[in-house]
Write a structure and sequence with these properties.
The protein is an alpha/beta fold and about 240 residues long. The protein has one domain: Alanine racemase (TIM Barrel, Alpha-Beta Barrel), CATH 3.20.20.10. Strands 7-6-5-4-3-2-1-8 form an 8-stranded parallel sheet. The chain is globular, with a radius of gyration of 17 Å. Bound molecules: pyridoxal-5'-phosphate (PLP). The site of pyridoxal-5'-phosphate has 14 residues, from β8 and α9.
């Protein structure tokens, strides 16, 4: 099991502010190239393994949404940074014994892929915090052996989730197998967009496509991402 402390010990100097400007330019350029309005894609800064000070620096450069993969690490960072108006997105695999923390701390959860987890998140969401925004993680490529629901299983899962009072389903998320080939990168992102379209007809509140990371955000934006999750290109490489 991963020890969430200490944070990355090797602190190669990263200019978070410069990195954020560069990523912002890439996003604007990709929006433009795809003929999409400026500002239609939001940036989630993935701060997993990085210390709270770097999150603070990113906040000072204008970012307010942060993504974490480990429940305990997210909770501790959220506590350290409670003086800032941040939103926390849980994007990692969800173990059922971690749902209490996730339901209490997160504003969004991107990685819901089974009903059991959705039920626990709804039951454990403190009602005064309002409904928890969730995305369903979808398997869009065969090579992707990780978590995720198959597109054909979505309608049933969505129907069951609609009954859960403390969750608000907002859309879909995917983590395709990495490739440097930009045409290949687009394929799973296109699958995710085409999977969301018919679902949106029935539920217009499904407004979010969480797809694209440091290495493939342009391809994701071309295919309709509304949110990209960027770690390395903002905070530098991860070492643990
Ligand atoms: C780590 C992680 C990211 C960020 O990846 P980078 O390649 O560092 O930008 C995005 N999404 C998820 C689900 C992750 O686990």
């Amino acid at each position: 099991m991963r020890n969430h402390f200490p944070y990355d010990a090797i602190m190669i100097s990263t200019d978070v502010q410069l990195n954020i400007s560069a990523v912002g330019r890439r996003i604007r350029a990709a929006e433009d190239a795809a003929g999409r309005p400026t500002g239609s894609v939001s940036l989630l800064a993935v701060s997993k393994t990085k210390p709270p000070d770097l999150v603070r620096e990113a906040y000072n450069s204008g970012l307010t949404a942060f993504g974490e993969n480990y429940a305990q690490e997210m909770a501790e960072k959220a506590r350290d940074l409670a003086d800032l108006p941040l939103s926390w997105h849980f994007i990692g695999p969800i173990q059922s014994n971690k749902t209490t923390i996730i339901a209490e701390v997160s504003d969004w959860v991107h990685s819901v892929d089974r009903l059991k987890i959705a039920r626990r998140l709804s039951e454990q969401r403190p009602p005064e915090k309002g409904p928890l925004n969730i995305l369903l993680q979808v398997k869009t490529s065969d090579e992707d052996s990780k978590s995720g629901v198959l597109p054909e299983a979505l309608p049933e899962l969505i129907g069951a989730i609609a009954e859960l009072p403390h969750l608000m389903l907002r859309g879909l998320m995917t983590i395709p197998a990495p490739t440097r080939d930009t045409m290949l990168q687009r394929q799973p992102f296109r699958v995710l967009r085409e999977t969301l379209l018919p679902l949106q007809q029935a539920q217009p509140g499904l407004d979010t496509l969480s797809m694209g990371m440091s290495g493939d955000l342009e391809a994701a934006i071309t295919e309709g991402a509304t949110l990209v999750r960027v770690g390395t290109d903002i905070f530098g490489a991860r070492y643990n």
